[in-house]
Amino acid sequence: MCYFARTDYRCGDWRWGNMKVRCPRQPRMGETCGAKLLDTENVTRVDDDCRLCQEIIIKQRRLQRERDNIRRWSLEGDRFRASIERAQREAKQLEQTIEEMRNRRISVVVSQNWQNNRGQLSGIPASEMVQMRRV
Q: Which portions of this protein are annotated as coiled-coil regions (predicted)?
């Protein structure tokens, strides 16, 4: 397990940075064991949302605009029927896209993996992980 720097975003997601401490379990020269652990001394906090969350916010504004158009056109009667149908299709597609993007967020993916694996990290017992950190 190697220790990496990390950037934390306001939205709760994070991004891995550069390797800071190489673990003693290095299989061969130049290779890492594949397990990433947080180096608590190298955490950068950013007062902004991650790129994916920014894109979700943009899509949500677009979805709200489509819903406002549908509501406004519905008050006019049958005059904008084709526009309403197009806006409804667009709104449904935006809702699906937003849901897919939310499921791609790092914090969501990691929490799902954590629940699926029942808290096991790479099959290494927690006591051994603590010993490795002390090295």
A: 77-104
Is residue 75, in this structure, part of any structural domain at all? yes
Q: Are 54 and 62 in contact (CB under 8 A)?
A: no
Specify burial of residue 1 (Cβ count, 10 A radius: 0-12, 13-18, 19+).
buried
| pTM of the shown model | 0.65
CA separation for the pair 34, 69 (Å, rounded): 50
The H-or-E segment that residue 95 falls in is helix 81-104
- Tell me, yes or no, whether 64 and 76 share the same domain: yes
Please name the amino acid found at residue 93.
Q
Number of domains in the chain: 2
Q: What are 80-132's pLDDT values in tens digits?
A: 999 999 999 999 999 999 999 988 887 666 666 666 665 454 444 444 443 33
